[in-house]
Amino acid sequence: MRDFVHRGSDGRRPHGTALGQGPGLVLLHGGGPDRYSPLPLARRLASGFTVVLPDIRGYGRSVCTAPARHTWAQYADDIQALLDRFGLPQAALGGTGLGGTVTLRAAPARPDRIRAAVVISMEDIEDDAARQAETAMLEAFAVRVREQGVQAAWDPILPTFRPRPTLLMLWHRPSGIPHLTLDPAHSCDPRSG
After folding, report:
1. Which one, of 77, 57, 65, 192, lies nearest residue 125 by Cα?
2. Residue whose C-alpha is closest to residue 92's, from 44, 21, 26
3. Going from the N-terminus, what domains does the chain have, and what CATH number goes with each?
4. Disulfide check for 33: which of 37, 85, 114, 135 has CB 3.0–4.6 Å away?
């Protein structure tokens, strides 16, 4: 396991940890924790992948100095800069919570760099209209899971991905209902001013 600091696309210096060797796999943490939260999963995957665990800007040691820099486009640029730092022309990208939402936004924005998307859970930090639209989409998704099964729930969603992800995952509660976080996350470390 090796810690690193790299230069982001906007000159910021995000921190991260990498382990393993093989094709690239970037795992993004949820809002609140830091890069170490997906470490147990990363350790299991490190025998076949170069697993990169960045602190998303504003979390862990990647302190943000401007909350306005927390945009989906900037997160996607951060992923591209991270892939460049490791010399990875492509990688799978996955995440939980905020990291899952970044994955859903970055994969279609960078189809030449992201070869697969793994969404364990997601959350939104957008405006109220976007949050309401996502809440409606997630509620409809949950109804389809209950009434028709997980595959049927994904059927109307998967065709909208470019490229179509080769793997999507959900964390399931014991009840069988997918865990999808709907609450907005804090987007910035309070120490960053």
Report:
1. 57
2. 26
3. 2-185 (3.40.50.1820)
4. 37
